[in-house]
Automatic annotation (TrEMBL):
GO terms for cellular component: cytosol. This is Tagatose-6-phosphate kinase. Residues 15-78 form the Carbohydrate kinase PfkB domain. Its EC number is 2.7.1.144.
Length: 79
């Protein structure tokens, strides 16, 4: 069992656009939100490699609920 620690968890927000046009309005085509932070990213890779792990850290509020729900959906254990 490996425990990872994320002291500053985040929500990574990725937007996709077709192309960047300088001086023009650039509109996004789609967006994705992911739980992020160094320890969380390590837990994600360990999970994909089939290595038993638990993500730990300090979370609260909207971000905490989002991170916990996202990791649960990915099958990553949290404490």
């Amino acid at each position: 069992m490996i425990y990872t620690v994320t002291l500053n968890p985040s929500i990574d927000f990725i937007v996709r656009i077709d192309k960047v046009e300088i001086g023009e309005v650039n509109r996004m085509e789609s967006d994705d939100k992911f739980a992020g932070g160094k320890g969380i990213n390590v837990s994600r890779i360990l999970q994909r490699l089939g290595i038993d792990n638990t993500a730990t850290g300090f979370i609260d509020g909207f971000t905490g609920r989002f991170v916990t729900d996202s990791l649960d959906a990915e099958g990553i254990k949290t404490t």
